[in-house]
Amino acid sequence: MSACFFGADARRLFGYHHPPRGAARTGVLLCQPWGPEYQYAHRALRVLAKRLAERGSHVLRFDYHGTGDSSGETTDVSLAGMLADAESGADELRRVCGTGTIDVIGLRLGAAVAAQYAARHTVRRLVLWDPVFDGARWIEEHPPARALAGGVNGSGHVEFAGQTVSSAFLDEVAGVTASSCEAVHAEAVLVVETQGVVNEPGARTTPLHWTTNHVPDAAAWVEDASIWSGQVPAKAIRTIVEWVTA
Length: 246
Description:
The chain is of the alpha/beta class. The protein has helices at 36-54, 79-97, 109-120, 135-140, 167-174, 234-245; strands spanning 2-6, 13-18, 26-31, 57-62, 103-107, 123-129, 146-147, 157-160, 163-166, 186-193, 211-214.
């Protein structure tokens, strides 16, 4: 595993490249969740990347602009920007592994980013892990956003999920629906559902040509207070690795 910076100077992104063990099979881009869900899922995503690399994949996981160790402020984050960062990550991954078509895996809000990427670019395999298919509901599951007086320079920033973000970002997320994630160009799509978050009563089901695998397991993106982090869901990770590398 090696740390790296990539992308344009004005939007420098930080990531980790996990080289394959043995002959390379493919390249896999990991699209992280956002906010606390990324913090809690960090261990699980690192394990996932390691397991994929052990099976012969180049793997790149990265921080979006305005998050983690990438450039920018939390108020710079936007869903459109996250998609642009995924495109930069895919370019970097293809440069490293020398392949054209890659696999993309997204967790939670990162799954919406992964699906939007696959709507613009052809991918080999697409994995949507506990995806956010209802952005408005996802926002409601967090404490209500608190408007900051005047924002920053009157820009309308809000406090949401422990971070200062733009109200425009929440408007973008509120527009995420199952239908907005359907028009993908992928040879195969796998939805991994560990917590019943995809097809709850009243929710729209995933397209029939997608494979949905219900894997009862811990939610990587939820804090386990006993360890101050998220758990590593071994069954879900094994399911993803075996499907991507089959």
